[in-house]
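Problem 12. The chain below contains 303 residues. Write out its predicted structure in token notation.
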Amino acid sequence: MNQSHEPTSRFTTSQWGLVALIVAVSGGSVLYKFLFSHDLGHTAATFIGIPALLAILLALAPRPKSATGSILRGIGIALLIIAPLLGEGYLCILMAAPLFLLVGVVVGAFIDHSRRKRGVKLSCVALVLLPLSLEGIVPALTYDRDQTVEVTRTVDAPASAVAAALAQSPDVETALPRFLRIGFPRPLEAHGTGIALNDTRTIHFAGAEGDPPGDLVMRVSDEHPGYVRFTAVSDTSKLTQWVRWQSSEVLYTPIDATHTTVTWRISFSRQLDPYWYFTPWERFAVGQAAKYLIAANATPSSR
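Solution.
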């Protein structure tokens, strides 16, 4: 006697892909909250570990034609879902997106290769990415954070006028470079005058990502003709998410009676890992800040 069998209901590949995406986004969200609750949100565990987790979870979905394409599509959708929820925090997504996608490409390439050659396992991918995810957590895997950037410009003013401008607070009405307008906290007010020893400057920055405004306080720690050094005393601004200011050194040398060479050198501590990805970003941003400071605090015509 033949028995009839009802067809078994199964998810389609597309439906399984959607389930994998939901699981991946949920897993990434849980890891994100865990890392930030343990003050690890600026380490490589966030910027390499989370995309690695997303990619591995997406790779476990039923096989598409290309694991790399599936992973990149999933990560892209995840970023688009998360970005609107972060408000001003979209800046972090903007900066980190290329790194997320790069990790996705690496994982996808391993998976696609293993399917063709049957020689690379998913566990091997995890073993490769795990050490890269520990920068900022394990001291031995954390690179030197101290950086120095300097910018030199010619100011159309005598050295005495440059010195007088430096003795004033920065002119916060000076337009910020375009890169610094994409979401970084903006200077709202500046207070303090003088370039004698122990004179101070307080720069009040807008808040970001739901955090309140904060102040960067600098003190004159060295001064002689043609040179002044400002050392950071405290910083409660949101800038500490990216960099911690250490000092600003200003060298101004007369070229002739109406022109002065101004070099603004900023020393800071990098706050984001991994170093090989975020160091160029941070150095570029600080370089833009140095250009701004020459225009806002060393150029008499800007005041």
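Discussion. DSSP finds seven helices and seven strands in the chain. Students who got a different answer should revisit the alignment rule from Section 12.3.
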